[in-house]
Amino acid sequence: MLVLAIDTATPAITAGLVELTADAVRPRAARVTENARRHAELLMPGVLAACADAGAKLAEVDAVVTGVGPGPFTGLRVGMVTAAALGDALGVPVHGVGTLDAIAADVAAGEPLVVVTDARRREVYWAAYDGAGTLLDGPHVTAPAALVDRLPELGATAAAGPSAAATGLAVRSTAGPSPVGLVAVAAAALRAGAEPAPLEPLYLRRPDAVPPGQAKKVTTP
Amino acid sequence: MIVLGIETSCDETGVGVVRAEGGATTLLANEVASSVDEHARFGGVVPEVASRAHLQAMVPAVHRALATAGVSGRDVDAVAVTSGPGLTGALLVGVAAAKAYATAWDVPLYGVNHLSAHVAVDTLQHGPLPPCLALLVSGGHSSLLDVPDLAGPVTPLGATIDDAAGEAFDKVARLLGLPFPGGPHIDRVARDGDPAAVAFPRGLTGPRDAAFDFSFSGLKTAVARHVEALARAGAPVPVADVAASFQEAVVDVLTAKAVRAARERGMETLLLGGGVAANSRLRALAQERCDAAGIVLRVPRPGLCTDNGAMVAALGAHLAVAGAPASPLDLPADSQMPVTEVLVRAR
Ligand SMILES: [Zn+2]
Asked: By residue range, what is the domain housing residue A14?
């Protein structure tokens, strides 16, 4: 099964093709560009470049997997709407996976792990996993110090993700999710031919907006 | 030729489908999912709320549009999308979706200017458009444009220097205790009011003011002063009279400047567009003044005036038929896209 994987929840714009078989997840091609401000411009060219690298046509894709965050909202939506529209136009299923889960799958640490990415505004997104890669806690958005306070209780001995250094733990990787990691998280559902759940972005924050109070007076009483 | 158009520059997720054949462009579908109710309690459009709604609404809106048009994705010959101007985060959702559909269907992609699309939409209702003067008024823009040809360069003659006309309606509605969006509510209550009850100022109409620019901020402040003075005196606010007088001040300036611009530019046609063009008093006064000046007035029906995907599809179809080059796949969302740029071209 040929799977297109997309993620735009970190500064990396990730597009890749992955061959999923009954017992393996094999990379065919990956295009990763670091540019936090140009997700929408660079993603589709990246998808086509990955197809060219793999010698495959977009129309040959059997399924799409997309990271659903958490991640800075504007970039996150670009990957998700691209995946949703491609799946719709190609008539193939689209599976959403947690971006942090995909990073954890890439590391396959064999040890308790926290995955940490940049949430901007001096906060981080994070989630904790056991040695088998099972999600224990998260994803959350907090100040780095609040995560550090939780580390003893979480039992993590290593960290991964672009903001892993904030933990003070041994850093296993600072990369965003790879196409293989993204597809690995959805592998069981893809192999089972399961109906994907509706795509739900993990924003973890409410929109910045407050209802207006009393109108400001323009005349001084 | 079947063209699908996507519009997400503000709070409407619009998807339209048109057919261009033998010089005529026909509307097949115009699906609009609006997040306006989610913005009401904030008294204005909240960009992040709008962008979240676009992501949820995008693919279902494409489905509905294709179903209504009675075509399948494989029948689509081109995809057009609003590249700007508008809210960046909102534009990005439509631009990304349009790229994906165009690529998967293997058809050309046209990234177009939102303002030109407001002009092009009239061809769906009234047929080919002669050279015209366009007055585009909405919550996001208030512009006077010289449009010799839909596919060619547009000359901006004037624009608001502060609030957009629709914004002024929203703010004054709030002062009068009317709900958001203010335009339709002010239009409704003004019908029972006296437009000459209060002599509100006409912005930028002095002899030394820019002839074709607009200003609505001073008018809004004048309404606030008036309402506050009544409140201080313990007098009730005559909402209908204030609404009618405010509305008259806005449409008086808009139509006077538009007709004067049409005359100066030698244009025989004036086109109204944008959400505020749905205002009944604006339509009536524009008609009156155009008749007096011997100018043909064209106003699309209200559903085509507000932001929608059909207008983007209409412009895309016009550009495709005119042989314009497709936009590159790395086309950006450009919140400040200049009105002189009708189509995003390869750099
Ligand atoms: Zn508009």
From this structure: 2-98+177-192
